[in-house]
Amino acid sequence: MVKIGDILTTEFPLLLAPMEDVSDPPFRALCKEMGADVVYTEFISSEGLIRNAQKSVIKLDIFEKERPVGIQIFGANLDSMLQSIDIVEAVNPDIIDINFGCPVKKVVSKGAGAGILKDIDLMVKLTKEMCKRTHLPVTIKTRLGWDENSIKIVEVAERLQDVGAKAISIHGRTRAQMYKGEANWKPIAEVKNNPRMFIPVFGNGDVNSPEKAELMRDQYGLDGAMIGRACIGNPWFFNQVKEYFKTGKHAKKPSILERIKVARRHLEMSIKWKGERLGILETRRHYSNYFKGIQDFKQHRTKLVTLETVSELMDVFTMLEQENETFVLTA
Asked: What is the C-alpha to C-alpha distance for residues 209 and 236, in angstroms, rounded to an integer?
């Protein structure tokens, strides 16, 4: 069993990656039900938290059914990060995660996220002080390095461990790569194989099939897999991986009716949590995957991503449920 601090998980835990506008409470709940072992919130700005910004504060919502759940924060200012630790602790998550990997310009330009990969000493200092500030296990999410000429992830991971980090998740790309090209898991395996490393090392990036997860476990020897884009609109992915691990065979794909029912439930939960407008808008990104491979579904998908009222959308889902047997799943 893999332990994150005192938190016992599974032999090869599957973690839901923190994804902005994706890893919200409704989606985390679905992923948890369908096999995710640990879930993480969307990343939360430390500056937003200490200023009580509504957009940041709402992301602190967590629920008992999600546990173990980690709240992820980002920032580059030590005082702000320490104050945000106190705020996060008050909502009693199981884990506090520090984002040292987000590659988007608006985050990096402030020296946060992957921007801190240009200043490893600051990265270590922030981690050390934040670990000292809280009784909760602190974990790290990062990338291989700023670019291919500055990959020192073996040394960096060891330093982060030595100042108190209880686990590290590493995306197999540099900041310069963004999400282009293939993720390189070899440096992540080098971190795991460092004889001085004793905390869990999780791999992230391109785990988009049960076979890839198996490869990460068996060939690269990592402690677990963090799943990101592969589970958007596909919360079944976690159980599909587990079924493959157990039997060596692919799980039966969710039926068309199950896809419709889960997509509808996802929308209902999102509206309940975010309100009608945001709930509708932020669920749209999931529909392409929920209904991927269904023949002649384009007109219905178009309605789902363009209609703007709950009643209209629920009418579409009701119609889809009634006519589900007329659709053909081709992939």
From this structure: 12
